[in-house]
Amino acid sequence: MRKVVKKIALFSVPLLVACGGGSKEPVNEAPTTVNLVYPTQNLLCVDNSIDFDWSDATDPNKDNISYKVVIAKNRELTNEPKTKTVGTSQVSITLEKGVAYYWKVTAVDNKGKEGEPSPIFAFYTKSEGETNTAPFTAELVKPTDEGTVSGTTIKLQWKGADSNTEDTLKYDLYFGEDTDLVEKATNLEVESQEVSVETGKTYYWKVNTIDSAGAKSIGQVWSFTVN
Q1: What's the rounded Cα separation, in Å, for the pair 33 and 136?
Q2: How confident is the model at residue 11 (pLDDT cuts 50, 70, 90)?
Q3: Residue 192: pLDDT above 90?
Q4: Where on the phi/psi map is residue 100: left (φ > 0), alpha (ψ -120 to 50), or beta?
Q5: Which pLDDT tens digit goes with each residue over 33-57?
Q6: Surface-to-core class of residue 62, CB atoms within 10 Å of its CB (0-12 exposed, 13-18 middle, 19+ buried)
Q7: CATH 2.60.40.10 domain extents, the chain
Q8: Of 21, 59, 118, 152, which sits 20 to 30 A from 98 (CA to CA)?
Q9: Facing residues of 173 across strands?
Q10: pTM of the entire predicted model
Q11: What topology does CATH give the domain 139-226?
């Protein structure tokens, strides 16, 4: 009897091993918010060459930090903005005389991560022989610009300021359903006003500020939508 020998071919299958290595790179966190030191809020600066100063920021990842300084002629920081990035918490800048300025500082780490910007401070550079300066533009308190509110009566609130601290301020309120605003109230001595609104509509408003010498600053247009 013939023996039949079966040959079995053995195949060597390589074992694939997925290798994951090392620990994950830590998440990059933003630097802290700085506090503005000088010029202080609503300061009248006699000299227009100013040493800006703010507190040092810290970084959770121990990254190196730089500071982005923005100075402009309006509270929204869009009118002729000057932007400067520096490595220390001080910088000297010469500005025009007789102008109201607004400024903020943002800390940035060396990976480009920005922290929350500082509050915006206002100051005024006095011109030679000037006896009265215009007030600062009104600062929004509530409702939040481009925000959403509920109700049929909304309280508009703002804050006024003047580098001439002895001045008495009054306000003209403009209000409407589009940016072509209608005068709502004049010579207000308070910094708030209630208005009637309707659900589903968007409203626009602004506040002009007038000092006791008649100098006026024109406010920014804000808006809100009613649920």
Answers
A1: 24
A2: very low
A3: yes
A4: beta
A5: 999 999 999 999 989 999 999 999 9
A6: exposed
A7: 36-125, 139-226
A8: 118
A9: 185, 207
A10: 0.80
A11: Immunoglobulin-like (2.60.40)
